[in-house]
Amino acid sequence: MAISFFASTETGAAARGRSYGAARRAAVRANVDGYFALFTAAGGTPTAVQTWAERALDRTAAWAPELAEETAGVAAGAGLETWQVAALNARTEILAALSATGRGECSTAVVTRGPSPHTIQTWDWHEHLHRAPVVWEFETHHTVRTFTENGVLAKIGVNSAGLGIHFNLLRHTSDGSDIGVPVHVIARRILGEATTLSEAVEIARSARTSASTVITVVTAAEAASLEICPDGVGVVWPGADGVLVHTNHFLDPALAEGERLGTEQPDTYARLDHLRAQADALAHAADPTARAAALLSHGPSAAPVCAHPDPDEPITERWETLATICLDISASRLLVHQGRLCGVGPATWQCF
């Protein structure tokens, strides 16, 4: 099943959002339904979700007004209330406010040595949201191509300035219900505005957040993982071998004191150990299929880098590797395989 692609031609935020929402109307509405089912299963009431979504939109409007306008445009185009699309963009914050648990998502590896960095990550998420992904191309300060979810302003991606990002979930004891700027909105500003790692750090540190994530920023010159949480932003650098790996727990020593997900779901540590053990293989795997093979591992006897859902679990616990994404920084391209990591082959990649 192919990932959908949509290219916006509008340069104004509101107009871009409206055209995107209209073109992707059915998919955005389906994603709203999927996430509201998840919020309900995690204990969220419609009133609470709307309140949190409206607060997230207010925070967005204060921090990045044009992105609040774009959110409203998407909603108008899709025939939805603005707060419903705001809830999609604040899904990480709403789930943090609900103290939702789960195995977490994503394993990321970046090799910085050589003429051009090569990267890979899995996107592990809830199985019932397997139709959420879309690749969206648009113009802001740069041309941006982002692998995201229908209605969500950005996630993993590259821009024409030669900067790309990967995206992993984190959880921290400082996460809470006083909703801040959504982490997906932070990712969008980094892709839309940043040309260097230092600019990306500055954008991340300017936002007041209420939930945690790690955005791994890659340019031709350098790479680092920005660990974001309400207590601050930590910067994690590659090792001496030029390999930077991340799963779903904090590596910054100060922020790691508030680690939450790893204490509940320790397989994040096993996955990181597996990625570190594969450092040499990753360093020599310039081909995306070879990188995927280096990452591949299944639980329960080994680190579960490739996740398969258990149909007997509730929807909050049915985790699946829904996609694998590589960034081609030099060409500002995304390579995307839809489906589990164990299904990757030379012919399964889509290039955007």
UniProtKB/TrEMBL annotation:
One Pfam entry name: AAT
Peptidase C45 hydrolase domain: residues covered: 120-330
Entry superkingdom: Bacteria
Any coiled-coil regions, as ranges: none
Xref: InterPro entries: C45_proenzyme-like (IPR047794), Peptidase_C45 (IPR047801), Peptidase_C45_hydrolase (IPR005079)
Protein name according to UniProt: Peptidase C45 hydrolase domain-containing protein
